[in-house]
Design a protein that fits this description.
There is one protein chain. It is built from 19 helices and ten strands. By secondary structure, it is α/β, with parallel strands linked by helices. It has three domains: 66 residues, Orthogonal Bundle (Chemotaxis Receptor Methyltransferase Cher, domain 1), CATH 1.10.155; 203 residues, Vaccinia Virus protein VP39 (Rossmann fold, 3-Layer(aba) Sandwich), CATH 3.40.50.150; 143 residues, Serine Threonine Protein Phosphatase 5, Tetratricopeptide repeat, CATH 1.25.40.10. It has a five-stranded parallel beta sheet. It has a three-stranded antiparallel beta sheet with strand order 3-5-4. Helix 12 runs antiparallel to helix 13, helix 15 runs antiparallel to helix 16 and helix 16 runs antiparallel to helix 17.
Length: 472
């Protein structure tokens, strides 16, 4: 059976996954999606993609929907994964929340969103039990663990584990929190399980499982990497809705809210980072999107005929009709960027680039605008020209790192973030205010170093390539 997808079949599966689970598959992930679909067609005996997707949309397609979701997402996890984050939780975040619990008269409420097979929520529960120490009774806390995969939910509820997932667990913790099970397995003890409730939940389409301001900590690690930027922006807004004003949001070490949400502030805790919700203004600025209110969206009907290809964009030369002087074009592009009119910023920057092909700043503005418009391939094209012209442009390297990470090119992203950390100290604060919201140079260097390490971990095994500097 062919492991390729026709254009119309790729669009059909891609749109189905986006509508039902919020998953985003760009063209650079087409081959991976094609391999999964080919395997599922072979396993089910379904003759073609339209018939397969139609079957998924029926009431009897639940189990196959689950298998497809499991196949297109990576569910590798383990107990006490990412030691810097675990230490931040143990030393700072959870003690602060436990201290507030008594004054509030309610337990600490934690949402493990996208909990996979349960290692994450049970790790949180173990930390809470350790922090409670010898105090009588269970810690004043409750953890809701949710995942879209019914199979992952079943595993989490069984709370029985073996193999690599326990590798980072010291023997002392294993002996305290697990009971030996059959055939070399380990069962999470009741003092931990009693803190955790596991339910099936779709983060994108299902109603929020909490009321506004009810949650003290949301942990959603390595989930948004599968979502489009608009879907991630929507999800972060939903987290902001349910978080208490003094709550915490913890993402995966390669995930960032930069250019996605201004409703949170980034806070360093040791070697990790957490997000704190800002005012309700961020909530009010967020526009509701169709099908994302507090009710599930319907699965779209299959198209009756092959969808029309999108209209070709106007040729780049069209942007050159603006006859303003080059400095005025660049100033206007920067102003549009600062005001959030990213399409106009891109148009004006393109005109400046066309008029002056050696103008580094025009390429940086163009790359910034395109990346915010989720046009990462075009952003990389512009930003690589910027660092070719100016190998010391730290902001360009930082933007390159983000675009590469979103495309799944983590080894290259690590190279770009390291270059950003090296070159950002020479950046004027006024330039940072133009492009990156005025964050301090030291703060941004620290973020770049952290993202470089996490991207390198994700891209281990890939061969780093040059991205525009003299050496990688």
């Amino acid at each position: 059976m062919s492991r390729d997808l026709r254009d119309e079949d790729f669009v059909l599966v891609r749109d189905y996954l986006a509508a039902t689970a919020g998953l985003a598959f760009a063209d650079n992930r087409r081959a991976a999606l094609a391999a999964v679909v080919a395997d599922r067609l072979h396993a089910t005996g379904v003759p073609d993609v339209p018939t397969y997707v139609a079957a998924l949309s029926t009431s009897g397609g639940e189990r196959e929907r689950e298998r497809l979701l499991d196949a297109v997402t990576v569910r590798e996890t383990s107990f006490f994964r990412n030691p810097p984050q675990m230490e931040a939780l143990r030393s700072t975040v959870l003690p602060a929340l436990l201290a507030r619990a008594g004054a509030r008269g309610r337990p600490v409420t934690i949402w493990s969103a996208g909990c996979s097979t349960g290692e994450e929520p049970y790790t949180l529960a173990m930390l809470l039990v350790e922090l409670a120490g010898s105090a009588a009774g269970r810690p004043p806390a409750r953890i809701l663990a949710t995942d879209v995969s019914a199979g992952a939910v079943r595993t989490a509820r069984q709370a029985t584990y073996a193999g690599r997932t326990l590798d980072a667990l010291p023997a002392k913790r294993r002996d305290r929190f697990f009971a030996p099970g059959p055939r070399g397995t380990f069962l999470v003890r009741d003092e931990v399980r009693s803190l955790v409730e596991v339910i099936g939940h779709n983060l994108v389409t299902d109603p929020l499982p909490f009321e506004a301001g009810e949650v003290d900590l949301v942990v959603c690690r390595n989930v948004t990497i599968y979502f489009s930027r608009p879907t991630t922006r929507l999800l972060i807004g939903r987290f902001h809705d349910v978080l208490a004003p003094d709550g915490f949001l913890l993402l995966g070490h390669s995930e960032t809210l930069w250019q996605l949400s201004d409703a949170f502030t980034l806070q360093s805790v040791g070697d990790a980072f957490v997000y704190r919700p800002g005012s309700a203004a961020g909530r009010r600025r967020r526009s509701p999107e169709p099908g994302t209110a507090r009710h599930p969206v319907r699965t779209p009907r299959l198209p009756r005929r092959r969808p029309r290809p999108p209209a070709a964009p106007p040729p780049p030369a069209a942007a050159a009709v603006d006859v303003r002087p080059i400095p005025a074009l660049l100033d206007a592009a920067r102003a549009a960027l600062a005001s959030g009119d990213y399409a106009d910023a891109a148009r004006l920057a393109e005109a400046a680039c066309a008029a002056s092909p050696l103008l580094t700043e025009a390429y940086v503005v163009l790359g910034h605008a395109r990346s915010t418009l989720a046009q990462d391939a075009g952003a990389l094209e512009a930003l690589r020209k910027a660092v070719f012209l100016d190998p010391g442009h730290g902001i360009a390297y930082f933007l390159i790192g983000g675009a590469l990470a979103r495309q799944g090119q983590h080894s290259l992203a690590a190279v770009a973030y390291r270059a950003a950390a090296e070159t950002l100290p020479g950046t004027a604060q006024g330039t940072l205010e133009t492009y990156l919201g005025g964050r301090s140079v030291d703060d941004l260097v620290g973020v770049s170093e952290r993202l470089a390490r996490s991207s390198a971990d994700l891209g281990s095994g890939e061969e780093p390539l040059r991205i525009g500097r003299g050496a990688s």
